[in-house]
Write a structure and sequence with these properties.
- With 440 residues, this protein is α+β, with helices and mostly antiparallel strands.
- The protein has two domains: 9-190 and 412-439, DNA methylase specificity domains (Adenine-n6-DNA-methyltransferase TaqI, Chain A, domain 2, Alpha-Beta Complex); 240-380, Adenine-n6-DNA-methyltransferase TaqI, Chain A, domain 2, CATH 3.90.220.20.
- Helices cover 35% and strands 19% of the residues.
- Helix 3 (130-139) crosses helix 11 and helix 6 (171-216) packs antiparallel against helix 11 (383-426).
- The longest helix is centred in the middle third of the chain and has 46 residues, at 171-216.
- It starts with 8 loop residues before the first strand and ends in a 14-residue tail after the last helix.
């Protein structure tokens, strides 16, 4: 770290804040801000509260640790008049999410708006700038979120937020710290965006490699024939083409809802199929009796595929482990006649993705029935070529996956550095009073 500490420090009187710069003050948020509040959600079945609404209404989904210049949801004047807790909050107010998956997420309001009950808003303070507080909450988020209560739906109450204490310098120095963090975090964010774009390109490359190998093969000189599909073109002459059901058994899940328990046997449904893999680490569990019932006539084994029929339609995981599990709802089991990963690669290719998107067009619910899956058009090479293509793709995708993983690790390190820098600046661990932007 090229920035120095302040010349002198004092005890803050707050254990988790520790020592702070000698000239900084410690504020309780409820004493610093004249207005700390939230809003409400008008009844969803009342169209008069929402239809043709023009009044901005912020929800926690709008909060993404950035400035807010607009929002998607609007409510009506009628809603405003009929809900006393639905009030306007002024520009430059700070919003923090209090509940659920978005807990601790922030938004810096750049226009007048109302909010729902899951948002806590800080406004009207003559001593603490909202931009400084914005960065303070980012730097202290881990501590703040640790104070949440509740299990599956954690929440931070307004009382907890009101009781928080923070140390701050005078406003001129607050501005300097905020400007410093705007500049430094923008540089880090640019690097993160470049890594994210690299990941996208690597994934596109992986998809292109897979799609070419499973539709054209590895021999560029192989005689070709018309596939019968206009957008696909030619395929190797000696390959078979036809419906998936010609080359694999497709077995639907049992349409039965079981009871989940904490100590039981694993179930694989759509939530366990991610990135074309099966992840049992957080799988739901059920009792042995219900588990055995779900496995009747459909026991997954090595080389099988689990295909999602609902929500993330087309996601498909390959069974490459020995841990027994059963199928939950909204998935089906695909068992190729040849024990090869080739069909898995083909089912993740553009060939299949395009077919799935075609029959989902216009569907009110993204769902595929088993017959549609059985009739997916596939290309099927001889067994020896399946193994050659599989081995080739295992090597190619492993290389690309390794590059993707390295980029993800780089992003994680940059995000950690970003948070550490913010935390150091807003708690006075580094002195940026003499920072001058480009010349720093």
């Amino acid at each position: 770290m090229k920035y120095q500490a302040y010349p002198a420090y004092k005890a803050s009187g707050v254990e988790w804040l520790g020592d702070v710069p000698e000239h900084w003050e410690v504020w309780k948020l409820s004493h610093a801000f004249e207005k700390i509040g939230s809003g409400t959600t008008p009844k969803s079945d009342e169209v008069t509260y929402y239809e043709d609404g023009t009044i901005p209404w912020i929800n926690t989904g709008d909060l993404n640790d950035s400035e807010l210049f607009d929002c998607d949801k609007k409510v009506t004047e009628f809603a405003l008049k009929n809900h006393s807790s639905l009030k306007f909050f002024p520009e430059n107010s700070l919003i923090i999410a209090m509940y659920g998956a978005t807990i601790g997420k922030l938004g810096l309001l750049r226009f007048e708006a109302t909010v729902n009950q899951a948002c806590c808003v800080f406004c009207d303070c003559s001593e603490i700038q909202s931009k400084f507080l914005f960065y303070w909450f980012i730097g202290m988020r881990q501590h703040v979120v640790s104070m949440a209560t509740g299990g599956g739906q954690p929440n931070i109450s307004q009382d907890i937020l009101r009781s928080l204490k923070l140390s701050t310098p005078k406003q001129l120095e607050q501005t300097q710290i905020a400007n410093f963090l705007d500049y430094e975090t923008a540089k880090i964010d640019t690097l993160i965006e470049k890594q994210q774009r690299l990941i996208e390109l690597l994934k596109e490359k992986r998809q292109a490699v897979i799609s070419h190998a499973v539709t054209k093969g590895l021999n560029p000189n192989a005689p070709m024939k018309d596939s019968g599909v206009e957008w696909l073109g030619e395929v190797p002459e000696h390959w078979e083409v036809g419906c998936l059901k010609r080359f694999a058994d497709i077995i639907d899940c049992k349409h039965f809802t079981v009871k989940f328990i904490d100590d039981g046997l694993p179930i694989v449904s759509i939530r366990e199929v991610r990135d074309d893999k099966i992840d049992l680490s957080n799988a739901n569990m059920t009792s042995e009796n219900e588990w055995d019932f779900l496995r009747e006539g459909r026991v997954p084994k090595l080389g099988d595929l689990i295909f999602c029929r609902n929500a993330s339609v087309g996601a498909v995981g390959y069974v490459d482990f020995d841990t027994p599990f059963c199928m939950g709802q909204d998935v089906c089991l695909i068992r190729p006649e040849i024990a090869s990963r080739y069909i898995h690669y083909q089912l993740t290719s553009v060939l299949i993705r395009n077919q799935i998107e075609a029959f989902l067009i216009g569907a009110t619910i993204r769902r595929a029935n088993v017959e549609e899956i059985r009739n997916l058009f596939v290309i099927y090479p001889p067994e020896d070529e399946q193994h050659l293509i599989t081995n080739f793709l295992n090597l190619k995708t492993a290389t690309l996956n390794n590059l993707i993983e390295k980029s993800n690790q780089a992003i994680e390190l940059m995000q950690e550095r970003r948070t550490a820098l913010i935390s150091a600046a807003v708690t006075g661990k580094i002195d940026v009073r003499h920072w001058q932007g480009e010349s720093a």
